[in-house]
Amino acid sequence: EKLTALAVMQDAPVIPVIVLDEVAQAVPLARALVEGGIRMLEVTLRTPAALACIEAIARHVPEAVAGAGTVRSQADAQAAQRAGARFAVSPGYTPAVGRACRELGLPLLPGVATGSEIMLAQEDGHTDLKFFPALQAGGAAMLKAWSGPFGDVRFCPTGGVTAANARELLALPNVVCVGGSWLTPADAVRQGDWARITQLAREAAALR
Ligand code: 3PG
């Protein structure tokens, strides 16, 4: 059955935002997150290794669903899908990125930070959105304010979210999940401390 942005958001309380420098880190990291109960994985297109990492996870970790983050153009969306990404996440929204993902059949979680951006995304049919950068742009208070005029929109706040503040966000009726990099600390990834990452994933999976 077809994956949707909402299904990506509903799978677990947290979507990990992953930055990988080495292809060799991708498979053990994905397995560590899956082991902890997190299987929707956003691998950001911010490093030269990112596409190869998505490809490795798609090929070798069938329990995970690899997605691409930091998708900012049609070319990004195409490259992500070629690598095996099953969903895309963008830091902002443009009609061009929305169109590219629709043409590819790639579910998109578009980033928004203002009412105008929400309206642009809604005009193109997107009702499940990432609020980015969430804490910097107003956090829980902003989400409460949006729940009136944009009562039909569901959000994944990302940016500045931590294990400490995730619960408050997840308790809001218009928040389905949160996103964040805290499940994959750079030092743990570098050291191959997969047990620590599994533990962080387990705690994240239990947040709701
Ligand atoms: C990012 O920009 O890397 C993501 O939004 C994650 O942000 P965070 O590191 O604040 O969780």
Automatic annotation (TrEMBL):
EC number: 4.1.2.14
Keyword Repeat: no
Keyword Lyase tagged: yes
InterPro entries per UniProt: Aldlse_KDPG_KHG (IPR000887), Aldolase_TIM (IPR013785), KDPG/KHG_AS_1 (IPR031337), KDPG/KHG_AS_2 (IPR031338)
Signal peptide: none
PANTHER family: 2-DEHYDRO-3-DEOXY-6-PHOSPHOGALACTONATE ALDOLASE-RELATED, 2-KETO-3-DEOXY-6-PHOSPHOGLUCONATE ALDOLASE
Protein's recorded name: 2-dehydro-3-deoxy-phosphogluconate aldolase
Species of origin: Ramlibacter tataouinensis (strain ATCC BAA-407 / DSM 14655 / LMG 21543 / TTB310)
